[in-house]
TrEMBL record:
Cross-referenced InterPro entries: DUF397
A Pfam family hit: DUF397
Residues of the DUF397 domain: 6-57
Protein name: DUF397 domain-containing protein
Amino acid sequence: MADESAWFKSSYSNDTGGSCVEIADLNGKVGIRDSKDPHGPAFVLPVGSWSHFIRAVTIGEFGN
């Protein structure tokens, strides 16, 4: 999918196994994977959908 160097961890991830998310730029798409399983499945979104998701989370559009 992407070279290992393309993936970076979320700033909210930590080394104790909690919230381990990695993101990669996939030329117009965004790859999202679990850093604990780097060779497992990845979720892929168009950049626009990823941007909309981040915007919605940032403004609190998703309820608890």
